[in-house]
Design a protein that fits this description.
This protein is an alpha+beta fold and about 625 residues long. Helices cover about 30% and strands about 30% of the residues. The protein has an eleven-stranded mixed sheet, sandwiched between helices. A five-stranded antiparallel sheet has the order 2-10-9-8-7, sandwiched between helices. Helix 14 packs parallel to helix 15. It is globular.
């Protein structure tokens, strides 16, 4: 067990003695100048109208620090605002939002924005302690945003993702820590000087624990701790069952670029980094399995003709398309139009950009990832993960929405909600739409409930976990699902968030980076988990490690399950494991595939809508979205 320094500074005195004036609120009445909060009275929640000053009919009420967290947070926010009022460079984004509690302080000006540290009141439930969360943020200037904002090298350096030389910032954790330290040294003393309750100047230590390292399983149940080295030693878990023909599609002017890619995928140009598809993935990749199509352009008739040729083939076919990078909107539209055309015909395709191919150094380190995606899209299974316990069904649920205008001129939010099915070993099983329509309509929820219940009932698993980046409604969805499934089935719903405000540092480790698979408790049902980090056996920093993820145990049909720490740890372990099942790349984003694949699909659906491409049936047994 090691301590992680959470990005949290506690208040020295936890007895706030905050007094408000309240009276029971009238149902459905919300008056300007008052706030409304629920208090527990005789075992039930009662809504009260809150006033900051004594009024007739209101009673005085002293808030215990652990009670009505939202109201205490508001009071602390107001006190910090008052205490920091004279500090230069202080500002508040989204001040119009009623529940905004975040305050920014400028640390350093930049030609394209401001380097800032933000703070906001927070109650750390696992320790029953009030304090402030603190974090670094680079805020792009309004002029840059108005001119058509694009992330460039300067902004990436200012944000800490790249170092001063424009390379991946291996000192990302130190970068964040140093900016927080600057705030603590130069700004926090000015706040504390006028604040009646001092804020600590040291980050709050929280004990952490370590889950097991990921284990990759290959053919004949061979196991390795690395997907890349495992594949280089053993055969893929399951090869492509049907002989595959690879269609290389390119413009006539790009023939040389296409040849470069082909040589790389054969293992001819960079054999020290990638030995070739045939040797690495054990599938034929000879001239007899490759066809070239040199086109004048990517016009609709030309692409449609290739689609017809593919449909006429008796073999499995994977198109490999070479096109421009997505630097401007026309190229971006072309990229997604090509993806849309083939996917709409039920044909997974691999699109590779010319900029990547002509950059020899970038191509050298990308060939393995390109080949991995091609193998999976052709129907192969490279590897699976060793699950924490027995295999069970995991349903990843994502959604994509857009705002549409009705004939009456009203704006409505229209959702597409879909599921990615894997088992706890990470093998991709299916993708299907769960519901589509206006999210406020009961018909939308009815279809969503019926389809989730249908997946569970059809799967014949006795244990089910749902992974989602958002909170599924308990009363509109989950409670209704439970009524439609076998009561003996264990159902757990986890909310997995990679956009969390929490961060942490391991002062005992090189570069302050925690070990991979570290986790700590934020509350009874919420954990902070490092899906990537330094290895206990080799604490050398070899890449920029990203943020930890927040995982909340949101719902279960058997409350005893969430009281069992071993049960919850096994679910956390499988989340870690599923991040290794990502067939998009050997060092792909460290998210469980149940969530990551949903993000990918959401991006595609959003782009298809943006470019007014027709609605497609996204259901497909092959992972076309890699």
């Amino acid at each position: 067990m090691r301590n992680i320094l959470l990005n949290f500074l506690k208040f020295q005195n936890q007895d706030f003695n905050t007094t408000v004036f309240r009276k029971q609120a009238e149902a459905g009445v919300f008056r300007e100048g008052f706030s409304y909060y629920d208090f527990e009275v005789d075992g039930r929640n009662v809504k009260y109208e809150i006033s900051n000053k004594e009024l007739e009919g209101y009673t005085s009420f002293t808030l215990p620090s652990y009670l009505s967290v939202g109201l205490v947070s508001k009071k602390l926010y107001e006190k910090i605002i008052e205490a920091s009022n004279q500090i230069s460079g202080r500002f508040i984004l989204h001040s119009e939002k009623e529940y905004n509690r975040r305050i920014h302080f400028e640390i350093e000006m930049h030609p394209k924005g401001r380097k800032c540290v933000w703070i906001e009141p927070y109650f750390l439930k696992s320790k029953q302690v009030w304090g402030i969360l603190v974090g670094f943020q680079f805020i792009v200037s309004q002029n840059i945003l108005n001119a058509g904002y694009k992330i460039d090298r300067d902004i990436q350096i200012a944000s800490g993702s790249l170092n001063a030389r424009g390379l991946s910032n291996l000192d990302f954790y130190l970068f964040k820590y140093n900016h927080i330290a600057t705030f603590v040294k130069n700004i926090l003393p000015n706040i504390n000087s006028t604040l009646d309750n001092q804020i600590s100047t040291t980050l709050f230590p929280v004990e952490s624990h370590l889950l097991d390292a990921k284990q990759y399983v290959f053919k004949e149940n061979r196991v390795d701790s690395s997907s890349y080295y495992g594949l280089s030693k053993y055969a893929p878990l399951q090869t492509v069952t049907n002989e595959t023909i690879f269609y290389f599609i390119y413009r006539k002017s790009d023939r040389g670029i296409a040849v470069n890619l082909l040589k790389g995928l054969r293992g001819e140009s960079h054999p020290n980094t990638f030995t070739g598809i045939q040797k690495f993935f054990k599938i034929p990749f000879t001239n007899d399995h490759i066809k070239g199509f040199a086109l004048d352009d990517y016009s609709e008739p030309n692409i449609s003709k290739i689609v017809e040729d593919i449909k006429a083939e008796s073999n499995n076919v994977l198109p490999v398309i070479i096109t421009n990078s997505k630097k401007d909107e026309s190229d971006d539209k072309l990229y997604f139009s090509l993806k849309h055309h083939f996917t709409n015909e039920g044909i997974p395709c691999q699109v590779v950009t010319k900029d990547l191919i002509v950059n020899d150094n970038a191509l050298k380190f990308s060939l393995g990832n390109i080949a991995l995606q091609m193998f999976a899209k052709a129907g192969g299974i490279p590897w699976k993960m060793k699950p924490a316990t027995t295999e069970y069904l995991i349903i990843g649920i994502g959604q994509s929405y857009n705002i549409e205008t009705t004939e009456e001129g009203n704006k409505v939010e229209k959702n597409i909600t879909y599921s990615v099915l894997t088992d706890s070993s990470g093998i991709f099983k299916d993708l299907q739409v769960l519901s589509e329509g206006i999210s406020m309509d009961d018909s939308y929820y009815t279809k969503l409930v019926n389809n989730i219940a249908g997946i569970i009932n059809k799967g014949k698993y006795k244990k089910i976990a749902i992974h989602t980046p958002f909170r599924l409604s308990k009363d509109k969805v989950l409670e209704r699902v439970v009524k439609l499934i076998d009561p003996s089935i264990e159902l757990s719903v986890l909310v997995i968030n990679d956009k969390t405000d929490f961060f942490g540092f391991d002062a005992s480790n090189n570069g302050l980076v925690p070990f991979e698979s570290t986790f700590l408790k934020l509350s009874a049902q919420e954990y902070l988990v490092w899906f990537e980090g330094v290895q206990p056996s080799n604490p050398k920093i070899t890449k920029r490690f990203g943020n930890p993820l927040s995982i909340k145990f949101w719902y279960t049909n058997n409350i005893e399950l969430f009281k069992d720490i071993d049960y919850k740890e096994s679910l956390l372990q499988d989340c870690i494991n599923l991040s290794g099942a990502n067939w998009r790349g050997f060092k792909a984003k460290q998210l469980p595939v149940s969530v990551f694949y949903c993000q990918r699909i959401s991006e595609f659906i959003g782009k298809f809508r943006k470019y007014e491409l027709s609605h497609i049936e996204i259901n497909n047994l092959k992972p076309w979205f890699l």
